[in-house]
Amino acid sequence: MATSSATAATILPAGQASASEIIRGAIQRNEQIRARHDRAEVVFCPHALGERRGEPWVLGFTLVASPASPAPGSWEWFSLAGLQDVTAQPGVWLTAPRWSRPSAASFLATVAVEVP
Q1: For residues 56 and 20, is the Cβ–Cβ distance under 8 A?
Q2: Residue 40 lies in a domain
Q3: Is residue 3 part of a domain?
Q4: Which of 3, 10, 12, 37 could make an S-S bridge to 42, C-beta 3.0–4.6 Å?
Q5: Residue 73 zone, left/alpha/beta (φ > 0; ψ -120 to 50; rest)
Q6: What's the domain range around 17?
């Protein structure tokens, strides 16, 4: 069965579909995300989820950063392909002033969900 390219672009690989749904739910419920990135633990508050060049990405406000990441309390784009063991957890949901948040629309080709 043929699918349009617009439909095909929204289908995520099997290993990433669950991470995408976990992150989508965390954005909707203002929960933290805990995962491994570059073999180190990261904890962040997700603010936007979408696709860039056919790959899923999430914008997070970091609480615990990996050695390769900026310091905690900063914004970072994470490729879902680079995140492992993704879980949502309750906790204080932090952000920064809206003017400091990177624009999801300027980074992502398609925005699936974003904090207002």
Answers
A1: yes
A2: yes
A3: no
A4: 37
A5: left
A6: 13-110
5 within a domain of the structure (yes/no): no
Confirm if 61 and 48 have CB atoms less than 8 A apart.
no
pTM as predicted: 0.80
Distance of alpha carbon 70 from alpha carbon 20, whole angstroms: 23
Total domains present in the chain: 1
In a domain, 27, yes or no: yes
**Residue pLDDT, tens place only, 30-76:** 999 999 988 889 999 999 999 999 999 999 999 987 666 667 788 99
DSSP 114: E
- For 107, residues 6+ apart whose C-beta sits below 8 A from its C-beta are 52, 57, 59, 77
